[in-house]
Every structure is written in C-alpha cells, then in structure tokens.
User: Which sequence fits this backbone?
C-alpha cells in the first residue's frame, strides 16, 4: 500500500500553493486519497509558504501524516526549515539554481534547475513551479496529461500566452528529469484505476452542507480563513433561491442573520475570532429573543490580528462563555472535511429545533484543508425545521410559552394572530416587557433548560480504540483524525488505548464523558492546539472522579499535532506510571 507525504516549500508569491493544489487535484483525479495542510504568511508576497499533501491508496486519510517522503524545496529557506523532517530514504527535489544542500545530508537528492529552465527555456520566471510539476510527473508517475488538464483550468483564464508558457514549462521539467536524473527509490503516485471521489476544502464542504440544510440568507464580512465561505456562497446560494449579503462589519452580519431568522429563514454567518468578538453584542439578542442562528468561527491564532493564516483552537472559551448576562448557546466542533458537510447540517437542525444560536468551531487548518470524500447522500440526511404554532396555539399566542421541553412554537411575520415583539429586553411568556425578578428568573431558567435536550442527541461523541483502555485520549474539533490515527498506531504497537471525541462542546457533555471514564480509566491525554489547554481545563472542571489525571498536550503556533507525537506522549505517560 502506498502512503506518502509530499511537502512543497518556498517563498510566498512564487506559486508554491498553486503547485501543491495542482498536485493534489491530479492525485485525487487519479483515484488516490488526499489530505492537505497549508501554512503561509499573511502577506501577499514574501515570507515562507508551504503546502503538504498526503497521498495514499488507502481508504481514508485521517491526518497530515508524520515524516516527509518527498520535500520539494524552491529555495534554501524551505530546505533549512523542513529537511530534518524528511524520513530515512526520503527524497529532496530542489531548485539547484537557488541553493545546494548540505552534502552530508542523508536523503536522496534530485537537483533540478527550476528557475534556470523557466528563465532560459520558457522565458518566464514564475513558471518555475510548473517545471517542478513536470519533474514530479516524470519522477513519481503522475500523468502529464492530468497536469495539463488542470493547468488549463487554473491558468486558462489568464490568457492563451500564460497557458502555453506553463505547459511548455511542465514539459521542460519532465524532459530535464528524463535526461538527467537517475531515479533511486520506488515512490510512485500513479493512477489507481479507482473512481475519483469528491475533492473539497473544509469551507466548501461546509457551504454545501449549509445549502443542503436549507440556508436561505448568508451575511458576512470578509476575514481569513472564513472568506472563502462568503465567496463560495455568493456564487452558489442564489442558484438555490438564497441571498448573500456582504455587510459593513461583523456586527451587521449577525444583525442580518437574526433579522432573517425572525422572518422565518434559515440564516448563517461565518467569521474568525476577531469578527466573532464583534458579534458577541448581538449574540445576547439571539439568546434573549430565542432566534435560531448559525455562526461559524474559523479559528486562527490570536489575539487580535495575531497569525491570521495559521490555525489554532484558541476560541473555545470565548465561544462557550463570551456574552453579557446569561446567554445560553450551543457550541459544536467540526472534525473533518466530511464532517464540515454533515456537521453544519446538524448545527442548523439544533439552531432550528432549540431556537438558539449555534456556534460552529472550525479552524484555518480545516477550513483550507482539501480532502477526498464520498459524495454526500443527501437523501439520508434529516433536515429539521423550527416548531410552528398550530391554530389552537395561535388563538392564544404566547411566543415564549413555557412548554414541557421549554421550546415554544415560533410564528413568522404575517402569520395571522402570530404577532409578537422580539426584543432584547426581558419579557413574559407572551413577549411583553417585564422587570420583575421572579419573571426574569423564570425566563432565564426557560432559556437554559430548553438546551438540556441537546445532550440527548444520539451523535454527541464518537469513541475509538480499546473498549477498556488503560489510557484515554480526548481531543476536540479538527484534531479527531490525528487522535484516531494515533490510537491506530498505538494499538498496533500493543498498547491499550481508547479515545472519545465530543462533537458537542457546549453544553458540556459531562455525563457521557464521565460514563466513558467510569470503567477504571485513570489517565486522560488531551491533545489540542492552544497554549493554555482550554479543553483540558474544561474537562477537569466536569470530572466526577478525583483520581483521574488529565494530561494536557497543548501547543499554539499553527501546526497540528502529528500522530507519532501523540503516540510518543502515550508511551511517555505509560512509562511514567509503570
Ligand atoms: N503562472 C501564472 N500565475 C501563477 C503561476 C504560474 N505558473 N504560479 C502561481 N501563479 C499565480 C497564482 O495563480 C496566484 O495568483 P492569483 O492570486 O491571481 O490566484 C499567485 O500567483 C500566487 O500563487 P499561489 O500559488 O496562489 O500562492 P503562493 O504559494 O505564491 O503564496 C500566498 C502566496 C498564498 C501566501 C498569498 O498570495 C496570500 O494569499 N497570502 C495570504 C493573504 C491573507 O489571507 N492575509 C490575511 C489577511 S488578515
């Protein structure tokens, strides 16, 4: 079975990301599985850009993988940064116009003068990335025709001259390798003959899921890494009768969403941490007026502008707690590209069923990651709608009526006898303003208690690995795949490891987690991507047993955990406690 990690590195602006993207799509169209990770600077030009593509003929790829099989270095910085991660017997394909690697370094070296060929044979320096792709096609078996097809798609719109120069560069790179390089390893990513799957980024899958859920109004303000949701929906949502509004800021975006929701439409906004902090004012209104709303936070490293193009899972506490007064909300963590599709549908279902804001946590890594997924079966997906008042209820309509499950039938403007005022001010069951302490306590309890039903949903957590593990892993959000792969690796190494992955993060699924840990598990490792170990802290607050040790495995900085790193941590913990 083939399973390889290709990493492309070079200067931002010289087309590193495009090279990785074309390679990814060519492999996926050849029937291979793909999983990408990209990290690039916030500037349009300059700084270091890298894209990693894991490509395999196994069924599902869960993480970006461990060591590098092939490093494609466009400059010395890329070599210096990444060469230590090349595995034994791995390959360095590099631009020897730019630099020469250390002679003693152990990897297999394929020098190809990308820049020289681009300048002398093609006459356009920018095409050096296509020279590199040509070299890759010759060395590793990706058919040139696949690349040509994709180059046409990508650069065709830039004009015939640009297109031809790029094809010329691709052919020149392949020719150079055929004439000058002797292949001395067996890495091949040739077509499998299998039917290609869908290739989607996290943000694309999320946008398609939102449309499948019945999204009718999207409002947003551009911000990395959420902007591609706005761009995608601006093209696609109107085709399904929906509307996209680019607002003047994030406060207005949530305002539009709440207005649309009041009017009976499914509505969503997406942002990143700084935009979410602006939305918090109106989050209070959503909770008080009990308006369904889906708010996506594609997290990035903060605070402030921070590292806007790097991933982090550091908005968890803000998503759970931000707000004035007591404003109940539901927080979900998306776990994979496929889960971006299904998870956002679940978010809409919860928002509509429980008439609540739902905050959906994605992150830069997941939002911009591409993965091959099976075409979603929309006929199997249950789409839920909000509870509407029947004729009897309308005869004596009380918008905030306290019902056995604390969820009240919600009318829409124009419904005969369904008139009510949806304000941010405290109100009685029929929506009239009221400042009495007893009423405030009663209505606060209503708003909190209606969310108890969320924790009865059947899909709140997923578990993996040994049923009675010696040690458990509990990650959250986009770390699911890497945790799952580390469980597989640890199990293969003979360790008794299990994992639980919560999909609903708030209300905190304390009972389910405590039940999972009740069969003697004494140690829990929590891998997450923030400095302070936010989920680990939350977990500690909710553990019933005091003899469970929570080991926080937290790091910020924008680079996800590797499965091997988690396995090392498991072994370390088991050794310490042996
Ligand atoms: N022929 C013609 N054009 C080519 C080419 C070729 N052979 N190779 C690349 N290009 C073009 C690409 O199409 C792209 O143009 P586009 O912007 O019109 O799409 C451009 O050159 C850059 O190439 P790309 O491969 O996409 O990126 P890169 O690896 O050079 O890195 C980025 C550049 C991605 C780092 C940078 O452009 C960027 O987007 N930075 C982040 C900005 C941001 O989000 N900041 C945060 C603000 S808060």
Assistant:
């Amino acid at each position: 079975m083939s399973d390889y990690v290709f990493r492309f590195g070079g200067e931002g602006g010289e087309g590193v990301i495009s090279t990785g993207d074309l390679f990814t799509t060519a492999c996926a169209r050849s029937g291979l599985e793909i999983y990408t990770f990209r990290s690039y600077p916030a500037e349009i030009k300059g700084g270091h850009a890298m894209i990693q593509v894991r490509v395999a003929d196994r069924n599902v790829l869960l993480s970006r993988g461990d060591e590098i099989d092939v490093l494609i270095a466009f400059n010395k910085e890329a070599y210096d940064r990444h060469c230590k991660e090349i595995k034994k017997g791995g390959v360095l394909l590099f631009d020897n116009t730019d630099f020469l690697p250390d002679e003693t370094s152990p990897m297999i070296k394929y020098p190809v003068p990308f820049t020289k060929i681009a300048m002398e044979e093609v006459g356009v320096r920018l095409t050096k990335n296509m020279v590199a792709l040509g070299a890759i096609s010759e060395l590793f078996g990706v058919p040139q025709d696949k690349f040509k097809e994709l180059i046409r798609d990508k650069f065709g719109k830039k004009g015939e001259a640009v297109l031809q120069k790029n094809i010329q560069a691709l052919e020149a790179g392949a020719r150079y390798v055929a004439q000058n390089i002797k292949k001395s390893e067996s890495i091949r990513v040739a077509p499998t003959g299998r039917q290609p799957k869908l290739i989607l980024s996290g943000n694309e899958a999320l946008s398609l899921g939102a449309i499948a859920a019945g999204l009718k109004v999207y409002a947003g303000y551009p911000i990395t890494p959420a902007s591609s949701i706005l761009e995608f929906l601006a093209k696609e949502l109107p085709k399904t009768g929906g509307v996209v509004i680019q607002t003047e800021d994030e406060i207005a975006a949530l305002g539009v969403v709440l207005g649309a929701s009041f009017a009976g439409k499914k509505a969503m906004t997406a942002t990143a941490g700084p935009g979410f902090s602006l939305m918090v004012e109106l989050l209070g209104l959503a909770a008080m007026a009990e308006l369904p709303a889906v708010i996506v936070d594609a997290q990035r490293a903060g605070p402030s502008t921070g590292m806007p193009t790097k991933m982090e899972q550091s908005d968890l506490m803000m998503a759970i707690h931000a707000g004035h007064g007591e404003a109940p909300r539901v927080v979900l963590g998306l776990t994979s590209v496929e889960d971006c599709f299904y998870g956002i549908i679940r978010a809409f279902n919860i928002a509509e069923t429980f008439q609540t804001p739902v905050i959906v946590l994605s992150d830069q890594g997941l939002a911009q990651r591409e993965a091959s997924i099976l075409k979603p079966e929309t006929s199997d997906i249950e789409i839920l709608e909000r509870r509407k008042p029947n004729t009897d209820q309308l005869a004596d309509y009380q918008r905030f009526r306290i019902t056995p499950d604390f969820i009240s039938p919600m009318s829409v403007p124009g419904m005969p006898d369904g008139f009510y005022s949806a304000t941010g001010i405290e109100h009685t069951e029929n929506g009239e303003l009221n400042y009495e302490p007893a009423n405030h306590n009663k209505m606060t309890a209503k708003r909190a208690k209606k969310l108890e039903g969320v924790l009865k949903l059947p899909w709140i957590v997923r578990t993996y690995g040994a049923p009675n593990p010696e040690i458990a892993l509990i990650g959250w959000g986009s770390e699911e795949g890497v945790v799952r792969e580390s469980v597989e690796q640890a199990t293969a190494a003979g360790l008794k490891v299990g994992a639980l992955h919560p999909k609903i993060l708030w209300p905190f699924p304390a009972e389910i987690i405590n039940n999972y840990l009740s069969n003697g598990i004494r140690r829990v490792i929590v891998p997450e991507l923030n400095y302070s170990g936010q989920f680990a802290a939350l977990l500690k607050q909710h553990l019933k047993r005091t003899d469970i040790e929570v080991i926080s495995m937290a790091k910020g900085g924008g680079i996800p955990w590797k499965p091997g790193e988690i396995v090392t941590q498991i072994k370390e913990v088991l050794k310490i406690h042996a």
